[in-house]
Amino acid sequence: MAVHIETPTVxxxxxxxxxxxxxxxxxxxxxxxxxxxxxNGQYVGDVKDLIVDTDRMVAEFVDVALDAKFFRIHGDPxxxxxxxxAHRDGDAHRLIVYGLTRSRVGTLILARDERQIEFWRDxxxxxxxxxxxxxxxxxxxxxxxxxxxxxxxxxxR
Length: 157
What we know:
flat, 23% strand, Photosynthetic Reaction Center, Chain H, domain 2, 3 helices
C-alpha cells in the first residue's frame, strides 16, 4: 500500500515566524518586538510579526497587537498595517503609524469583524454540497435581560 504524504503548501501571504527557514535580509530593518506609536507619539501597540508576500519575498504588512485598553477593544486586538504606513521613529525601535486614531481603529475593527462574519456565511453557503444535518439545531434567539427575566433564568428547574 502506498503512503501519500502531503507536502506543505506555502501560502501567498505568510507570517515570517512560520517561514522558519527565512529571515530578514542583512542590513534591512526587522521591527518585530518594536513599540507602535500613533501620530501624537502615544503608545498604541506592539509589532508581533511581519506578513510576507511569498511570491515577491518582501514584507507586505506589519502585524500589530493594539493596546486593547487604549482602544477599548473587546475582541481580537491584532491588525495588519501596510509597510508603507509604518514609519521608523528616528533610530529608536519604534514605528509611527499616523492612521491609528481611536475613531479610525474603532471603524477598522467593526468593518473587519463584519467582513469576517460575511466571509463565514459565504464560505459555508458555497460548501452546501455537504449533506444537511438530519436534525439541525434550531435558531437561538437572544434578548436583553431584565432583572425579572435574569432572576427567572437563575432559578433551579
